[in-house]
User: Which sequence fits this backbone?
């Protein structure tokens, strides 16, 4: 499949703005938008697209975290971040190893069904009650959450925020604003490590970063401010719709 348009600076500026906005607004990182766009519209090969996306997300997530912290510092649950990151680092390595050994077609479909179910729950179409985990047992389970998010990210190519935000909201007692800010904070060290790895193998298009990063950072400021200005139910509805789209893309992805 040939790319649709050739690489040009205006398109990269616009892509950075959109990816940065969604990254900070939904706590998803932004790679789910940037990677396919770089491949389809800017003629990147997949490895170069992933590396460039990760390098862009690092400063973007950092700016988004700062804005979230300034607006409402209590939205970032630092202790939770530490436990999730501990699991996600191991999970990413496990998922990358597993990806070489199994056929992921069925796994993708099963995971897509779970994402759709979560989207239905967040949009309140399905009203199955969930019990938030608020005891000390939550911390070991946060490591499990990191393991699952990291493994799914490496194995299926989906962002960890797709998993972390709804799980933190539905099962760990965080409101949606806290879940978004906490997820974005987890994503920062994860993408930083990934960017270093891809830089080592020359998978980052440094020339494009001067277009992507500035507008992505502006987008992150706008996204963080936007999501903190909305009611919780509205954000949950938006995220639920995003989960539907993510599930469809996951099923169609080759």
Assistant:
């Amino acid at each position: 499949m040939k790319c649709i348009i050739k690489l040009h600076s205006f398109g990269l500026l616009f892509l950075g703005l959109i990816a940065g906005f969604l990254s900070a607004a939904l706590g998803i990182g932004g790679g789910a938008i940037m990677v396919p766009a770089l491949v389809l519209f800017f003629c990147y090969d997949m490895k170069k697209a992933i590396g460039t996306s990760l390098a862009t997300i690092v400063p973007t997530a950092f700016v988004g975290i700062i804005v979230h912290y300034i607006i409402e510092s209590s939205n970032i649950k630092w202790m939770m971040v530490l436990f999730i990151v501990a699991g996600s680092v191991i999970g990413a390595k496990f998922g990358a190893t597993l990806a070489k050994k199994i056929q992921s077609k069925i796994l993708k479909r099963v995971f897509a069904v779970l994402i759709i179910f979560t989207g239905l729950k967040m949009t309140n179409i399905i009203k199955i009650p969930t019990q938030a985990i608020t005891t000390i047992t939550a911390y070991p389970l946060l490591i499990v959450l990191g393991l699952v998010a990291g493994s799914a990210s490496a194995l299926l190519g989906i962002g960890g925020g797709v998993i972390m935000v709804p799980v933190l909201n539905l099962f760990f007692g965080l409101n949606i604003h806290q879940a978004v800010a906490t997820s974005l904070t987890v994503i920062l060290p994860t993408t930083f490590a990934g960017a270093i790895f891809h830089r080592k193998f020359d998978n980052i298009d440094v020339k494009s970063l001067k277009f992507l990063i500035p507008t992505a950072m502006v987008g992150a400021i706008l996204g963080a401010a936007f999501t903190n200005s909305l009611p919780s139910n509205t954000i949950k509805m938006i995220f639920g719709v995003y989960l539907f789209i993510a599930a469809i893309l996951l099923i169609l992805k080759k």
Remarks:
- The chain has a mean pLDDT of 85.
- DSSP finds ten helices and no strands in the chain.
